């Protein structure tokens, strides 16, 4: 049976802009992935979901400026639970100068608002070693 | 198999990572699946199984979230399997049942898993059953299976659970629709959710009236419970009615008989699919299908006659 990539998608914290993450979720679904959409959740709940759902990838949407604080927190919590094989992606409005910082802190890839959907789909697919 | 054995023994101790992995393996029907099921089955059977179904938008996820909270506050451990439809085009799915989930207390023992109805090999019935057995064996005392009530899935849920809750809303329609829907026959409890909206009384009267016509034949009279889940109204009543139904089932071996009937059906279904698997392998091995396809396409033989021919040839071998 064909192995479907499982992606947990969430809006970080109290960030209320949902259209972007919802759109990306729809596209990932149409690309054949199983997207577990959480809505607004804090890092603890996101990690809890990623473990129970046996996710390959976590996608975090952030437009509210909390990316530096909450993004790496998800990475660290996953590491603490021994789940650092789960890749964390971020998308939304993130100042370019913060991107190297986030990557250094373990965020796998960061996509700005202009990113073509194909790039996101390919980025996620390639990050998962399909077995 | 060493890795699988480790996962099994960890999952029996309640380890979340192991449970999550095992469910993935079994759901995908990967090679170790039969071995896992064999090892898990003797440890299952002590949980109480609740099915929640109803039309899209009726508030299933919200009600499940509130029930989880009640069970946890009463010191039960809970496993939830939430099934959503998948895209018939891409096979992908957008699983949104966790959106309604509120923050858990630290002391709660909950495991929640979203599942796509589409990727399932051998039907929804197989994976929900097998995954819930893994949760059961991992020590969860209450298992809740949530599916959208459109078509076959509600019958599958009735086959896998002890108490079936059917959720409707004031907008769910009049008498006639109620009678037509296959949902109605499987309910042990009816919930009219969003009961703060107009029409709630009417629909609950419609359900009562429909039940009245069958009541002579029924030993258990399904109650109709009014809730407004998002406002936290009526959930206590629902919780009490679940336990009342469970107490009812525990009299005179009713639960035992219900589960035995379910297991018998499961066994029959599995024998059927085993037979089909074996047969298909044999028939495909003969490349008979491809040969016949030419004849069917050229209209030298019709599909029914061709099928009879295939089976008769196989019986001769």
Topology, element by element:
The complex is a heterodimer of chains A (131) and B (317).
Chain A: E1 6-12, H1 19-30, E2 34-41, H2 43-52, E3 57-62, H3 67-80, E4 87-92, H4 99-104, E5 109-111, H5 117-127
Parallel strand pairs in A: 1-2, 1-3, 3-4, 4-5
Helix pairs in contact in A: 2-3
Chain B: H1 2-12, H2 16-28, H3 33-40, E1 48-54, H4 60-73, E2 78-84, E3 93-95, E4 110-116, H5 123-137, E5 142-148, H6 153-160, E6 163-168, H7 175-180, H8 183-186, E7 189-192, H9 200-214, E8 224-226, H10 235-250, H11 254-285, H12 288-297, H13 303-316
Parallel strand pairs in B: 1-5, 1-6, 2-4, 2-5, 6-7, 7-8
Helix pairs in contact in B: 1-2, 2-5, 5-6
The low-confidence parts of chain A are none
Order the strands across the largest sheet of chain B as they lie in space. Answer: 4-2-5-1-6-7-8
Q: pLDDT average of chain B, as an integer?
A: 87
Strand content of chain B: 5-15%
How much of the sequence lies in strands of chain A comes to 15-25%
- What is the strand tally of chain A? 5
C-alpha geometry of chain B:
globular
Query: Which class of the largest domain in chain B in CATH terms?
Result: Alpha Beta
Helix content of chain B: 40-55%
Number of strands of chain B: 8
Distance between the terminal alpha carbons of chain A, to the nearest Å?
Answer: 11 Å
Biggest β-sheet strands, sense, barrel of chain B = 7 strands, parallel
Distance separating the two termini of chain B:
37 Å
Structural overview:
The complex is a heterodimer of chains A (131) and B (317). With 131 residues, chain A is an alpha/beta fold. Chain A has a single domain (13-115), classed as Rossmann fold, CATH 3.40.50.280. Chain A is 40% helix and 23% strand. Chain A contains five helices and five strands; from the N terminus they run E-H-E-H-E-H-E-H-E-H. Chain A has helices at residues 19-30, 43-52, 67-80, 99-104, 117-127, and strands spanning 6-12, 34-41, 57-62, 87-92, 109-111. The N and C termini of chain A lie close together (11 Å). Chain B has helices spanning 2-12, 16-28, 33-40, 60-73, 123-137, 153-160, 175-180, 183-186, 200-214, 235-250, 254-285, 288-297, 303-316, and strands at residues 48-54, 78-84, 93-95, 110-116, 142-148, 163-168, 189-192, 224-226. A seven-stranded parallel sheet of chain B has the order 4-2-5-1-6-7-8, sandwiched between helices. The model of chain B has no long low-confidence stretch (mean pLDDT 87). By secondary structure, chain B is of the alpha/beta class. The longest helix of chain B has 32 residues, at 254-285. Chain B folds into three domains: 1-43, no CATH class; 46-249, P-loop containing nucleotide triphosphate hydrolases (Rossmann fold, 3-Layer(aba) Sandwich); 264-316, no CATH class. Chain A binds chain B through residues 1-4, 25-26, 28-39, 42, 45, 48-49, 51-54, 81-83, and chain B through 16-17, 20-21, 23-24, 28-30, 86-87, 89-96, 98-99, 101, 103-104, 111-114, 116, 119, 121. Strand 2 (34-41) of chain A pairs parallel with strand 3 of chain B.
């Amino acid at each position: 049976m064909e192995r479907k990539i499982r992606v947990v998608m969430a809006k970080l914290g109290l960030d209320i802009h949902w259209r972007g993450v919802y759109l990306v979720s729809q596209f990932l679904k149409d690309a054949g992935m199983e997207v577990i959409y959480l809505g607004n959740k804090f890092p603890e709940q996101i990690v809890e979901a990623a473990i129970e759902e046996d996710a390959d990838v976590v996608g975090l949407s952030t437009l509210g400026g909390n990316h530096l604080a909450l993004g790496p927190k998800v990475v660290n919590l996953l590491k603490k639970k021994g789940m650092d094989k789960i890749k964390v992606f971020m998308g939304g409005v993130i100042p370019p100068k913060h991107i190297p910082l986030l990557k250094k802190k373990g965020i796998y890839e960061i996509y700005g608002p202009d990113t073509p959907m194909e790039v996101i789909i390919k980025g996620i697919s390639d990050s998962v070693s399909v077995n | 198999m060493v890795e699988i054995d480790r996962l099994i023994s960890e999952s029996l101790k309640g380890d979340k990572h192991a449970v999550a992995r095992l469910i993935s393996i079994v759901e995908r029907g990967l090679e170790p699946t039969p071995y896992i099921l064999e090892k898990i089955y003797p440890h299952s059977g002590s949980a109480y199984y609740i099915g929640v179904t109803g039309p899209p938008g009726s508030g299933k996820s919200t009600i499940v979230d509130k029930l989880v909270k009640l069970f946890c506050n009463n010191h039960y451990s809970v496993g939830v399997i939430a099934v959503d439809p998948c895209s018939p085009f891409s096979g992908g799915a957008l699983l949104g049942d966790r959106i309604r989930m509120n923050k858990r207390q630290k002391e709660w023992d909950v495991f929640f898993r979203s599942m796509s109805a589409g990727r399932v090999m051998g039907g929804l019935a197989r994976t929900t059953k097998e995954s819930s057995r893994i949760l059961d064996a991992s020590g969860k005392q209450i298992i809740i299976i949530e599916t959208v009530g459109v078509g076959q899935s509600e019958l599958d849920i009735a086959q896998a659970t002890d108490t079936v809750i059917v959720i409707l809303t004031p907008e769910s329609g009049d008498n006639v629709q109620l009678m037509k829907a296959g949902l109605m026959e499987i309910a042990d409890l009816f919930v009219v959710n969003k009961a703060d909206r107009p029409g709630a009384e009417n629909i609950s009267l419609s359900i009562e009236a429909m039940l009245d016509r069958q009541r002579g034949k029924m030993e258990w009279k399904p109650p109709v419970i009014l809730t407004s889940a998002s406002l936290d109204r009526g959930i206590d009543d629902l919780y009490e009615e679940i336990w009342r139904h469970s107490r009812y089932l525990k009299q005179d071996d009713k639960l035992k008989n219900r589960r035995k009937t379910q297991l018998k059906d499961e066994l029959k279904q599995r024998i059927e699919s085993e037979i089909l698997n074996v047969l298909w392998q044999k028939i495909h091995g003969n490349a008979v299908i491809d040969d016949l396809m030419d004849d069917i396409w050229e209209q030298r033989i019709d599909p029914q006659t061709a099928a009879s021919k295939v089976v008769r040839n196989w019986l001769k071998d």
